[in-house]
Design goal:
CATH class: Alpha Beta
Number of helices: 6
Number of strands: 6
Structural class: alpha+beta
CATH architecture: 3-Layer(aba) Sandwich
CATH topology: NADH Oxidase
Number of domains: 1
Largest sheet: 6 strands, antiparallel
CATH superfamily: NADH Oxidase
Shape: globular
Radius of gyration: 17 Å
């Protein structure tokens, strides 16, 4: 049996104006801090963006869901502390999205290319020695989406012993 958060998690790009509580944000980040990291480095940190900087980030990315979401969480990692920084950030991000789902909140992975990442780092005053690869808008879901179903599963994508 797959955990319900995996079944129910969808990329949400439309949010209500209802705020996300500080307690919910803490629970989401706690889930990310419990994510595995290479050599148990625990090097992932988080920038929570709710104020004027959110609009500045929107001005860079030009994605309405970035402006609409009540909160953005940016996972950040000191590159010197990890042998697998992209993987460490990715696992932490997925844990955050699953915890958001458990709290009946929506989220989406917003990828940051090198240009966007540099501009977002400047806005949020993230040191050059640190890596960001994405940000996660989080909010209350405006339009619910259906859960995944077994019909979406494909056994044809499983290869045994060899391709």
């Amino acid at each position: 049996m797959i955990i319900k958060e995996i079944i129910n998690r969808r990329s949400i790009r439309s949010y209500t104006s209802e705020p996300v509580s500080d307690e919910q944000i803490t629970e989401i980040i706690k889930a990310a801090q419990f994510a595995p990291t290479s050599n148990h480095n625990c090097a992932v940190e988080f920038v929570v963006v709710k104020g004027a900087n959110k609009n500045k980030v929107y001005d860079v990315l030009k994605k309405d869901f970035v402006k609409e979401a009540p909160v953005l969480i940016v996972p950040v990692l000191d590159k010197a502390k990890s042998v697998a920084p992209v993987q460490d950030l990715s696992i932490a991000s997925e844990h955050m999205m699953l915890q958001a789902t458990a709290l009946d909140l929506g989220s989406v992975w917003k990828n940051l290319d090198e240009t966007w990442a540099a501009e977002v780092k400047k806005i949020l005053q993230i040191p050059e020695t640190h890596l960001i690869i994405n940000l996660i808008p989080i909010g209350h879901i405006k339009t619910p989406t259906p859960a995944h179903t077994d019909a979406e599963f494909s056994g044809k994508k499983i290869h045994k012993e060899k391709w």
